[in-house]
Design goal:
The chain is an alpha/beta fold. It is built from twelve helices and 17 strands. A hairpin with a 2-residue loop joins β13 and β14. Bound molecules: pyridoxal-5'-phosphate (PLP).
């Protein structure tokens, strides 16, 4: 009997250690890491620069609290503002907390403009985290069930539908912002169509709404730009980042620009661990390693290579609805639920996740060689073909 709460349905695998894009279990079996700890391990495993920086920081100062100045937090804040072209940062410890900060900033924005019951537009099939406010913002009843009463102040819209947002603008006087993922992750790897973000930006300008992007999964280079919104020539007012930023050390960040950058004032928000020296040193090192290795561009190139190869394999397979994604955020939607495929993939030495019931999702590290990317395609194609074969659907080779 485990002492742990039963929050997770775990695969029958116990990971012992890793190197690059490879992981080993406690029996010595090797796995190709196709999901990078759910989009966290951008640099793969056992990156030496990151390990050294963490060790060095640990022997110098792990934590001192935000009662004092923390130079490495200042440095990471400046670096993030530079790559994101934003003006200020609040550091926290996870994606959900970064989104909580976004939500609080939106409410401050509303109150500043005389809106007493501010509401934020959020999307169907969105995922923003597991705190009460972020699970309310999440567009998935399964995640909300049992935790009612939910938090007031959210209005739901279909994803990537600008007319729906315009209708909400016409019928609601209390909207203060619109919050969404540029590519929905947990919702099934759904990129918004090109042009949507620019249209949202324009509407937010017209309505005095904050444009709030959740880049927790898409950020820090995963889609082939530092941030996925940079695929369009726009800037959000507020952005949440986490996951890959620490390369495995927990850290989240909420960035803001323009008037939104000054809404948080002393005493209005905070957290004990947020931006501590260890997490910030990890964040700085991750960004530095990504820059040195030109890994943002590399994520884009690798993504195209993998997506094209998978499309070639599966475009004519009747049970494959689509192969889609941006950079190294890739989904293969099957016609039927395929949860069992994650176990079969692990048996075949490949780690991946299945999301939205029927979307096989890969989120690999950016440091893969071409050969490793091709191996990933081979293994993945084999596992999917085998799975579809079992369910009675032949897949053309
Ligand atoms: C888009 C998005 N937002 C928020 C979160 C929540 O992040 P965390 O699990 O670090 O709280 C996730 C996690 O998967 C995510 O994908």
């Amino acid at each position: 009997m485990s002492a742990l709460m039963s929050s997770y349905g775990r695969l029958p695998v116990t990971i012992s250690h890793g190197e690059g894009v490879w992981l080993w279990d406690t029996d010595g079996k090797r796995y190709l890491d196709g999901h990078g700890g759910i989009a966290v391990c951008a640099l793969g495993h056992a990156n030496q620069a990151l390990a050294q920086a963490i060790a060095e920081q640990a022997s110098q100062l792990l934590h001192c609290s935000n009662y004092y100045h923390i130079p490495v937090q200042e440095q990471l804040g400046e670096k993030l503002c530079q790559i994101a072209d934003m003006d200020s940062v609040f550091f926290c410890n996870s994606g959900a907390e970064a989104n909580e900060a976004s939500i609080k900033i939106a409410r401050l924005h509303g109150h500043k403009h005389g809106i007493e019951n501010p509401a934020i537009v959020v999307m169907e099939n969105a995922f923003h985290g597991r705190t009460l406010a972020t699970l309310t913002a999440t567009g998935n009843r399964k995640i909300q069930a049992g935790f009612e009463p939910l938090v007031p102040g959210f209005v739901r819209a279909p994803f990537a539908d600008i007319e729906a947002l315009e209708r909400i603008a016409a019928t609601h006087r209390n909207i203060v912002g619109v919050m969404f993922e540029p590519v929905q992750g947990e919702g099934g790897v759904m990129p918004a169509q090109q042009g949507y973000l620019s249209a949202v930006r324009e509407l937010c300008n017209q309505q005095n709404w904050l444009m709030i992007v959740d880049e927790v999964q898409t950020g820090i280079g995963r889609t082939g730009k530092w941030f996925a919104h940079q695929h369009e020539n726009i800037k959000p007012d507020v952005m949440a980042v986490a996951k890959a930023l620490g390369g495995g050390v927990p850290i989240g960040a909420c960035l803001a620009s323009g008037a939104a950058a000054d809404l948080i004032q002393p005493g209005s928000h905070g957290t004990t661990f947020g931006g501590n020296p260890l997490a910030c040193r990890a964040g700085l090192t991750v960004i530095d390693e990504i820059e040195k290795g030109q890994l943002v561009e590399r994520a884009g190139v690798l993504g195209t290579r993998i997506i094209e190869a998978l499309k070639k394999r599966f475009d004519h397979a009747p049970e494959v609805v689509s192969v889609r994604g941006k950079g190294l955020m890739i989904g293969i939607e099957l016609a039927n639920p395929c949860g069992a495929l994650a176990v079969q993939a692990a048996e075949a030495g490949l780690l991946l996740t299945v999301t939205a019931d029927n979307v096989v999702r890969i989120l690999p590290p950016y440091i893969m060689t071409d050969q490793e990317a091709d191996e990933l395609v081979e293994k993945l194609s084999g596992v999917i073909s085998h799975f579809l074969g079992q369910s009675g659907d032949a897949v053309p080779a």
